[in-house]
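Handoff note, outgoing to incoming analyst
You'll be picking up this chain. Sequence as last confirmed:
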Amino acid sequence: MSVQGEYRLNWLGLAALSVGTIAALIMALFQDAVQPYYPDLKSDSLAIVGSEPVRRGAYELLLAAIGADKRTPTTAADRHLALSRLLQDELLLQEAVRRNLLRKDDMLRKEITITMLEIGASSGAPSTNDSTGSRAQALDEYLMHLRNTAVVRWADDE
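Most recent structure output, in case you need it:
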């Protein structure tokens, strides 16, 4: 190949490199202005799995728990592990919902019922150390609220 042919090839390579560099600079400058369209992605969300957001607060709590178990500062691998765990948990939860395991798995149903009763008992009760009587009263009020707001049809009503 002649010197003139090599010279022309170098200019073509330099021109392609220049166009790529300019395109990358333009994209970097307008990165914040041109945001992808994710209507469900709120500012406190890190990702969306299906239609459910993975919240930044849950990530930070898990990362803090990982960090508490270590003697060194958290690393990029720890951050990746925390986010991967949250994504995996959400995927598994969505699959359990899809399979209707709440209705089919008696152990899971029992655990969720116990958790909901604990939440109900604590949500209506004062936050101080109160007696068993006021916790029971708070639980009764919570269950009454659930009954009053639910739509229940009896089989013999049809």
